[in-house]
Amino acid sequence: MERLVLVHGSVLGGRGTWGAQTPLARRFELVVLDRPGFPPNPPVDRIDFEPDAELVAGLLHAGDHVIGHSYGGVISLLAAASRPDLVGSLTVIEPPATRVALDVPAVADFARNGAWLWANGPKDEPEAFLHAFLAAVGSDYDPPSPLPPELEQAARALANERGPWEADIPLDELAEAPFPKLVVSGAHHPAFDAICDVLERELHAERLVLPGYGHTVQRHPEFNERISAFVERAAVVRRGPRPTRSAAAAPRPPRAHGDGSAGS
Q1: CATH code for 3-239?
Q2: Which of 98, 128, 135, 163 could form a disulfide with 122 if both were Cys (CB 3.0 to 4.6 A apart)?
């Protein structure tokens, strides 16, 4: 059974991010991660994509299919680049890897606004900071008020994250890696669309666009079937083509007669 390693982004932990993927457990082994600082793990003072990528890379088994959403997509890109020998495929869903596309004005604005929010936003007020963040990424998630304890912890973890606009994605190393790549976007935000355009081109990746679900593209009703088909194709690529019959087992040519003509 193929193994899917699911890496969540900001705000929601593994269960909240990947709830719609539960039915995939009938076809795959699901490894749903909860990153440090996010419930049910204890709070931490600092969250950083680089040590989180090392953590994910350290959990990989040979042939794993890594799937990362948002900030988890940045982590997944870095983890896959560090251990390409273990990765069976890589899927990223709208990663805010802004440095790959800073020449696009919408991406530059997105990175600048994110940096401003982290420097000047209400980081001591989890609910207000969460609402500002959700508006910035184009999420239609409407959190309850007041925030329940787990969501409040996740909002505080969000405020402690290192900004993804600081991530340097090793595009050349990823492009050379032999595993298939898939880039997923939701056609709702020009910055995410542009980032995904660059990743698709530079990584020689497949592209999937599923509109209508904002930043949580994995909740689209077609996502599970499309990701399943991609993973299964990638598994075939990793295993290689089915062996052909050996020359000894191949049909023999007609036996020639002494005059050189073929027998009837």
Answers
A1: 3.40.50.1820
A2: 128
Strand partners, 207: 183
| H-state helical runs in 189-256 | 190-202, 223-239
Structure tokens at 43: 């709070």
Residue 49 token pair = 């994509």
Checking if the pLDDT of 257 tops 70, the result is no
Cβ 234 vs Cβ 206: under 8 Å: no
DSSP-derived letter for residue 197 is H
Whether 183 contacts 199, CB under 8 Å: yes
Global pTM value: 0.90
| Residue 246 C-beta-side C-alpha neighbours within 13 Å | 2
Q: What residue spans define the domains of the chain?
A: 3-239
Helical packing angle, 49-59 and 71-82, nearest 10°: 60
Give the chain's largest Cα–Cα span: 97
Residue 186: which of 204, 161, 168, 208 has the closest Cα? Answer: 208
Cβ atoms 69, 8 nearer than 8 A: yes
Confidence bin at 259 (pLDDT 50/70/90): very low
